[in-house]
Amino acid sequence: AVTASEPTTTQVRLRPEIAALPAYRQGRPAPADGFKLSSNENPWPPVDGVAQAIAAAALEVNRYPDATALVLRERLAERYGVSPDGVLVGAGSVSLLAQFILAACAPGDEVVYSWRSFEAYPGLVTVAGATSVQVPNRADHGHDLDAMADAITDRTRVVIVCSPNNPTGVPVTAAEFERFMERVPADRLVLLDEAYAEFVRDDASVDGSTLIGRYPNLVVLRTFSKAYGLAGVRVGYAIGPVPILDAARSTAIPLGVTAVATAGAIAALEDANEAELLRRVDVLADRREALREALIAQGWEIPAAQGNFVWLPTGDRTVEVAERLFEAGVVARAFPGDGIRVSVGEEESVEVLLSVLEGLV
Ligand code: PMP
Fold first, then answer.
1. Which residues are 236's β-sheet partners?
2. Given the DSSP bridges, would you call strands 218-223 and 189-193 parallel, antiparallel or unpaired?
3. Domains of the chain
4. Which residues cross the membrane (predicted)?
5. How far apart are CA 278 and CA 265, in angstroms?
6. Whose alpha carbon is nearest atom 1 of ligand 1?
7. What is the average pLDDT across 311-327?
8. 145 pLDDT higher than 90
9. In this structure, which residue's CA is closest to atom 4 in ligand 1?
10. Mapping DSSP to helix (H, G, I), strand (E, B) and coil, where does residue 285 land?
């Protein structure tokens, strides 16, 4: 048996702001027969064609991957009408967010984003040595883009727009976004984080794919983690001006995107596989609408929901409501004092959710 214990103190000088960072939170595991609705994951395992491509790639993992993910970039480039150099692939879009922030920000520079939004943003900004400028969401839980434009200073290097916003679900409209882009100086980078783009059904919402080539300072970020069900292999992509992507390429840790991940993503884009994946997305979008309407009928105030999740503004009762859900087998993401984000998952989870929440309005 090993008897030595690891040291619990150190004299090594670590960056104090890093030591103070909370670790990235993942939901607790769901109880047996329960539902894990805390990470906005796709409830289905991969379609056969994708699973087979991943298994085949696994047989060659003694070799390093293609560092540039060229084949996947070519497929995506064709789809978005850009050159392969106009696509950057990363180890999940969270890695790409970090790469862009590192590419644009020096210590002391500012990154503006709405709050509450994706929990990873503050940590990524701090790691880059930059400063977060958080602009409160509007009363309807959406971005206040006018206030975000007002918050831009000489030190601002990046503005992150998350649509639909995680965790509140509210999208930015195309009109709002265009007005906003007119106000942002062209030498500041705008990251449009569209991790949930494929679930959007509201035609007024911004669609980054229609904006490509229109703004010299706009990068659109998407992922295979949600609609394409590949959260576990880590692959996302960015589309934008080549010099900005080149800079972000330089801030990546080399070889972060595995061949297993790109094989899965390439297979997911093949016609037959993608047709089934997008059919599942439709099912989830319909399920989201039904869940939101049922919750509103119960008396809950649910903001516009365009991702694969809904937001319950539970305020001071957040911990209590999350606990009641957990007792019923549902793990949701609680933001104490604020609200609860519940992913749209398995069909059977909807009934459980509704029966618990009915008594808690
Ligand atoms: N952006 C947003 C808004 C997200 O919610 C997530 C995942 N929770 C990500 C980016 C990162 O996704 P991934 O790294 O899996 O691509």
1. 90, 223
2. parallel
3. 16-46+272-356 (3.90.1150.10), 59-270 (3.40.640.10)
4. none
5. 14
6. 195
7. 97
8. yes
9. 195
10. helix
Q: Identify the residue whose tokens are 């087979």.
A: 52
Helix H or strand E segment including 154: none
Average pLDDT over residues 317-331: 97
Tokens for 99? 């790469």
> How close is the Cα of 2 to the center of ligand 1, in Å?
39
What ipTM was estimated for this complex? 0.99
Starting at the edge strand that comes first in sequence, how are the strands of the sheet with 218-223 ordered?
Answer: 87-90, 236-239, 218-223, 189-193, 156-162, 110-115, 131-136
User: For position 28, what pLDDT does the model report?
Assistant: 82
Q: If you measure from the C-alpha of residue 195 to the centroid of ligand 1, how many angstroms do you get, rounded to a whole number? A: 6
Closest approach atom of ligand 1 to CA 226: 15
Mark out the alpha helices in 85-137 (DSSP H runs): 93-104, 120-127
Residues contacting ligand 1 via CB (< 6 Å): 40, 92-94, 118, 162, 166, 193, 195, 223, 225, 231, 236
> Can you give the pLDDT at residue 1?
62
168 has a pLDDT exceeding 80: yes
Exposure on the CB side of residue 182, measured as CA atoms within 13 A: 7
Residue nearest atom 11 in ligand 1 by C-alpha distance? 94
